[in-house]
Amino acid sequence: MLTEIARAKLNLALHVRARRPDGYHELETLFAFVEYGDVLCVAPAEAPAFQITGPFAAALAGEGDNLVTRAAARFAETFGGGAHAIHLEKHLPVASGIGGGSADAAATLRALAGLHDVALDDPRLFAIADGLGSDVPACLLGGTAIGKGRGERLEPVAGMPGTPVLLVNPGVAVSTAEVFRRWDGVDRGPLGADPLAGRNDLEAPARVIAPVIGDVLEALAAQDGVTLARMSGSGATCFALFEDAKACAAAAAGVARFGWWSVETTLI
Ligand code: C5P
């Protein structure tokens, strides 16, 4: 049996550059990952089995088809390896901009690759990831990276390991496709030399769909010791980076009264 952590993905910056003829958008983004995530256990079995538990299990339970089972099916088509029993402990909110489903799919591929001696840099594994979703290749790589194209053209860069992070989600699921559809089409320029000085171009359209995102960002920005407060991906999860863990803990206590989901963690 192999256990993998499907760590939450953050877009520390996300610049939308153009709408493409294929319906996707050309991006420039800085991907980073935090310690916190879903937990995935994979073991060889007589027949395929999938079980989901954990605080956000209900959002996915009953869906026969999900990114984990799809990842396992694609892996078996390409590499064989027989059937597997997969247990997913769901800690990340679903459809929330921190790559929960993508992280789970990537963790499934990593676990199966580990069980069947497939190298993690095998281009066939990357091709499966790319076919499952725009963020899955970044989650397969799993480290800080600049992403271009749909997010699949990846260039690893130095991260800021140990930086305290507070994740906050106000409990509204927003559709990624809908947020992209509402982007105003204005190219506000590339990621600069310091991507953290950039922005998330999906914040404005996501705030139209879920105005509470503005409340979250305002609450985070008002905390002591915050170095950056921004929305991740297409939302609604927002994050704040802090000078130290004490400031992060104080901020977690500070926003607790709103009743939003929140987690204190660190960048890897
Ligand atoms: O690739 P994925 O299936 O995760 O994307 C979900 C939806 O988000 C796409 O169908 C598309 O509408 C939108 N999207 C986009 N541009 C990207 C990534 C996603 O328009 N770069």
Which molecules other than protein and nucleic acid are bound?
cytidine-5'-monophosphate
Secondary structure: number of strands: 10
Content-based structural category: alpha+beta
Q: Which class of the largest domain in CATH terms?
A: Alpha Beta
Oligomer: single chain
The CATH topology of the largest domain is what? Answer: Ribosomal Protein S5, domain 2
Helix residue percentage: 25-40%
Calculate Rg over CA atoms: 18 Å
Alpha-carbon distance between the two ends: 25 Å
Shape: globular
The major pleated sheet works out as: 6 strands, mixed
Please give the domain count: 2
H/E order of the elements? EEEHEHHHEEEHHHEEHE
What value does the average pLDDT take?
A: 97
Which ranges are low-confidence, i.e. pLDDT below 50, for 5 or more consecutive residues? none
Keywords: ATP-binding, Isoprene biosynthesis, Kinase, Nucleotide-binding, Transferase
InterPro entries: GHMP_kinase_C_dom, GHMP_kinase_C_sf, GHMP_kinase_N_dom, IspE, Ribosomal_Su5_D2-typ_SF, Ribsml_uS5_D2-typ_fold_subgr
Family: Belongs to the GHMP kinase family. IspE subfamily.
Catalytic activity: 4-CDP-2-C-methyl-D-erythritol + ATP = 4-CDP-2-C-methyl-D-erythritol 2-phosphate + ADP + H(+)
